[in-house]
Amino acid sequence: MSLTNATPNKQAEINNQATILCVDDEANVLSALRRLLRKNGYQLLFAENGLEALNILEKQPVDLIISDMRMPEMDGAKLLSHVAQRWPSTMRILLTGYADIASTIEAINQGNIYKYIKKPWDDNDLMLSIKHALELKFAESERLRLEALTREQNEQLHILNDHLSERTLHVEQREARLGRILNSSQNEIYIFDAETLHFIEVNEGARNNLGYTLDELSKLTPVDIKPDFSEDEFLNFVQPLFKKQQKQLIFETVHQRKDNSTYPVEVRLQLSHTEQTPVFFAIIQDITERKNNEQQIRYLAYYDSLTDLPNRRFFMEMLTDSLSQAKRYSKNIAVLYIDLDRFKQINDSLGHSIGDGLLKGVAERLNTEMRNSDYVSRNESMNSSNDFCRLGGDEFTVLLSDISQAEDAALVARRIQDALTKPIMIEGREIFINTSIGIAVYPNDGDDIDNLLKNADTAMYDAKKAGRNTYRFYNDSMNAKALENLEMEIELRKAFELNQLEIYFQPKVDSKNSNICGVEALLRWQHEKDDWISPADFIPIAEENGLIVPIGEWVIDSAIGQCKKWHDAGFVQMSVAINLSSRQFQDGDLADLIENLLNKHQVNPNSIEFEITESILMEDAELATKILGRLKKMGVQISIDDFGTGYSSLSYLKRFPVDIIKIDRSFIRDVHIDFDDAAISSAIIAMAHSLGLKVIAEGVENQQQLNFLRERNCDQIQGFYFSQALPIEELTLLLADPTAFKK
Ligand code: C2E
Ligand code: MG
Ligand code: MG
How many CA atoms lie within 13 A of 648 on its CB side? Predict the structure, then answer.
């Protein structure tokens, strides 16, 4: 809804009629206000202190009062609290210095002020706030006017009631009076038979609005103009009237005209037993205007009319809600405080209309770009454009109401900054704008709204000091960690796009004869020359930001393709194991993807094995059962990786179609010297065999470990003792040498 366009007349009315009282103990402030406000044709009044202001208010109505905070004797907060009590319809704006922020917040919380503006104020901002406050006041008085109409509706009901019960009058007199009442009313009045429900009388107002003639209406019942109600439902609904449990029913509903258009109404329904047959009479008020008005009031109270974004009040309420949710469900939330860099300079040098345009442009850009960003899929709360709010001036906020870790907030901050890198076109000019963003995270950085906002604001100043167009966490340690992870994320994205990731293959050997029976595909990332980044470091990040989905797809595609190549080269026993992360499971079409790739490469599915961790099964057993069931049908093998580190419930595993257990290497490391590890490993092997599962030990580094595992009949061995993960060519050479692993 755009108010600036929708209410030009109201606006003129507001400007001409509105009376504004300015209160400040400094004469130069008053004259600055005079200079600014007289341009707009407001009626202006001035007072130098609180008492003088109250005197003026006693004498004449004032639409809006703008008061300084610091004044001798009675400060602004106190003055406005008086005004709020005695003249609640007078809008109240407080001008404050930075030092008064605590008492200002208190005044806001008590509902005594509509808005506060920091001194020195921005002319534009102040003018907009005044305009906005007056619009709100106007809408509020409209609401009161409509309420008065409702009262009138009620009175009419009484008159009708009296009329019907007045036995003393002659029939003609009664008829005449009824006609007068019916047709003088602004409301719609229906009288209908309580037994047949057929309309008996319908006033002109109602006929005009509904579009029916009296003749047509006499064949209809209320159910015809309220088609979502059946006759039975209606009779049920009016039972309390028949049983005299209630004198009248008041409800809001929607009526349908002859042309099928609809309009909202408020209905007052009464049953009269005074006639020979009981009749209903209903007085109906078309509340389209009221509804629009309510919407407008809500809009004015909660939205910023320049940018159409939710305003400070909205933000504070939203933050309060989110905070109580976060406390109840132990969630993390983040508040991002966004400030446009050098906005004041742009505003001063290029003029206010460019400044306004820029604020609007930023709001639009944020809404569109952020909605399209892939962050949306990660965070439900980012789905709604309402998450950006304009606090005032050039300050915006974002609330992330459920983040899994602080870095998520950094990600959003960076997206915001990215979204604004392209210039914004205003009046044919390209304007470049940067932002400084401060981040405060609940619970670490405060556990109430004031502290969170204050700390986000402080962090924003740190960001500005750090050189603008950056973001900063309130908490320093998070800056370093977030920065590191985000840098890695950027680099990883780049590496993936530039095909710099590689897949190495680590042999798995048959423990009986040391023949290579398969390989495990393991990702390798050579960041710079001699600088390898471990998958243990980059995979969690790729999982967190979703990059594991495309990377994983590429791994599956390449690994299956490579398996086929080995088969074609004569190594027909080769099998390839591929690691899957839970993120890939959740992505939805994993089974389809694998099916397509198996078809694409025409490989024997039996030679493809997928390694998953226990946690995947535990996180969403239903989903896991579904996907694994489909994979099994395709004929691939499933193994449980890192077994022993998670829930380690073999009996639980029976519920899933699993073929192989991989004993985690933490049990293998000391298996030949540590009694517990030996016992656990032996037990896993024995139990797995009893369930008909194969067992593979990972991380085998020496002959003693190998001997131990052989004695226990562990089926396969993987580890540096045989080989590290190798590039394709080296692995192919190994395959061609049958004596390679004779240990
Ligand atoms: P994982 O699946 O348990 O892989 C086995 C890890 O143990 C590999 O580490 C391997 O190099 C290492 N390893 C094998 N033998 C020995 C040994 O004898 N001694 C020692 N100390 N280590 C040994 P890597 O390659 O660093 O991979 C780490 C983890 O990253 C993997 O653990 C796997 O969870 C994950 N990962 C690797 N590639 C992928 C992939 O393509 N997709 C997914 N989702 N995860 C992957
Ligand atoms: Mg693995
Ligand atoms: Mg493992």
Answer: 14
Which CATH code, of 3.40.50.10860, 3.40.1190.20, 3.20.20.450, 3.40.630.40, is assigned to 506-522+546-735? 3.20.20.450
Question: DSSP assignment of 272-319, as one string?
Answer: E-SSSS-EEEEEEEE-HHHHHHHHHHHHHHHB-TTT--B-HHHHHHHH
Which ligand 1 atom sits nearest the alpha carbon of residue 662? 3
Q: Which of 532, 698, 726 to mutate to test the pocket of ligand 1 (most atoms within 8 A of CB)?
A: 698
Dihedral sign (CA 125, 128, 134, 137): negative
Helices (H), 39-96: 50-59, 76-86
Residue among 49, 55, 139, 145 nearest 91 (CA): 139
- What does 200-249 look like in DSSP terms, one character per residue? EEE-HHHHHHHT--HHHHTT--HHHHSTTS-HHHHHHHTHHHHTTS-SEE
Name the nearest CA neighbour of 269 among 243, 238, 291, 233: 238
For the chain, the C-alpha Rg in angstroms (whole number) is 37
Using a pLDDT cut of 70, give the percent of the chain over it: 90
Give the start-to-end residue ranges of the domains of the chain.
Answer: 1-121, 147-291, 305-474, 506-522+546-735
**CB contact set of 4 (below 8 Å; sequence gap of 6+):** 11, 305
> For the segment 326-348, what is each residue's pLDDT rounded down to a tens digit?
998 888 999 999 999 888 888 88
Q: In this structure, which amino acid lies at residue 621?
A: A
Half-sphere exposure of 343 (CA within 13 A, CB side): 27
Q: Of the residues 509, 522, 523, 672, which should be mutated to test ligand 1's pocket, given the most ligand atoms within 8 Å of the CB? A: 522
> Which helix (DSSP H) or strand (DSSP E) does residue 453 occupy?
helix 449-465
Q: How far is the CA of 581 from the centre of ligand 2 (A)?
A: 10
How do the residues of the chain divide into helix, strand and coil, expressed in percent and rounded to 5? 50, 20, 25
Angle made by CA atoms 38, 296, 189, in degrees to the nearest 5: 125
What's the CA dihedral at 549, 555, 561, 562 to 10 degrees? -170
Cα dihedral across residues 57, 60, 64, 67: positive or negative: negative
* CA 441 distance to own-chain centroid: 16
The residue among 560, 568, 543, 569 whose CA lies nearest residue 598 is 560
Instruction: Give the range among 262-276, 352-366, 440-454 with minimum mean pLDDT.
Output: 262-276
Alpha helices per DSSP H over 612-699? 614-619, 621-634, 650-653, 665-668, 675-690
What's the CATH fold of domain 305-474? Answer: Alpha-Beta Plaits (3.30.70)
| 3-state SS, residue 562 | helix
Are 667 and 643 spatial neighbours (Cβ–Cβ below 8 Å)? no
Ligand 3 centroid vs 212 CA: distance in angstroms?
A: 78
Question: Which atom of ligand 1 is closest in space to residue 642's alpha carbon?
Answer: 3
For ligand 1, say whether the CB of 664 is within 6 Å of any of its atoms. Answer: no
User: 3-state DSSP call for residue 119?
Assistant: coil
Beta bridge partners of 67: 23, 94
In the CATH scheme, what is the code of domain 147-291? 3.30.450.20
Per-residue pLDDT reduced to its tens digit, 368-385: 877 654 443 333 433 343
Q: How far apart are CA 723 and CA 737, in angstroms?
A: 14
Higher pLDDT, 144 or 669: 669
Ligand nearest to the Cα of 506, by number: 1
* CA distances in angstroms from 414 to 36, 91, 186, 292, listed in the order given: 39, 39, 58, 39
Global confidence as pTM? 0.50
**CATH topology (fold) of 1-121:** Rossmann fold (3.40.50)
